[in-house]
Write a structure and sequence with these properties.
Layout: H1 4-29, E1 32-34, E2 40-42, H2 47-76, H3 85-128, H4 134-177
Antiparallel strand pairs: 1-2
Helix pairs in contact: 1-2, 1-4, 2-3, 2-4, 3-4
Length: 183
């Protein structure tokens, strides 16, 4: 069986993962801007940000599903389901969720950085054409992209927690079934 310190670490990491993923979802869901001329944009207008939000929601749902099991394991030092199924579920669930979060982080940061570069070039061209309202457009669109980057940063924090949980669940899986590389 996994030691008491490992089970407590799993619970703490699941709580941190849930908090960071929830922060990411809230920040991204409320990310929008509206210009004085009526032009508005939300995260829904960018497919990449919809994927980042979906990854965060799936990560939150999986973590919420795992929290009662981790809490029970810490309190009683026993698994709620004792047939060996739960360590397997932890192992594969943590791996899949970890990879989903990693792809969301990569997509979110990649789009944000590329969009910032394109926005800079677009504003330079529009300034050369002497278009009005560029200052408002520049500030609000930069704020929109910064907020999305911050949300992706919270998703990154959730990914790191899930990656550590993935390692701990593989150790726990090895301990629970009595098999290992050297046994």
């Amino acid at each position: 069986m996994a030691g008491k310190a490992v089970t407590k670490s799993v619970l703490i990491l699941r709580i941190f993962a849930l908090m960071s993923l929830a922060a990411s979802v809230v920040l991204l869901a409320t990310d929008d801007f509206k210009l004085s001329n009526g032009l508005k944009a939300t995260f829904k207008d960018v497919i990449t940000y919809r994927f980042v939000l979906a990854a965060g929601v799936v990560g939150c749902a999986y973590t919420l599903l795992q929290l009662p099991f981790a809490t029970y394991h810490v309190c009683t030092e026993k698994r709620l389901i004792r047939n060996g199924c739960l360590p397997e579920f932890d192992f594969y669930g943590d791996k899949i969720t970890c990879f989903l979060l990693a792809s969301g982080v990569g997509a979110g940061f990649a789009f944000s950085f590329e969009a910032k570069k394109l926005l800079k070039d677009l504003i330079f061209l529009l300034a050369a054409l002497e278009v009005d309202g560029l200052d408002e457009f520049k500030s609000k669109s930069n704020k929109f992209l910064h907020r999305a980057s911050i949300a992706t940063g919270f998703l990154l924090l959730g990914f790191v927690c899930m990656a550590v949980l993935s390692v701990l669940s593989s150790i726990s899986r090895t301990w629970s079934n009595g098999r290992g590389f050297f046994k």
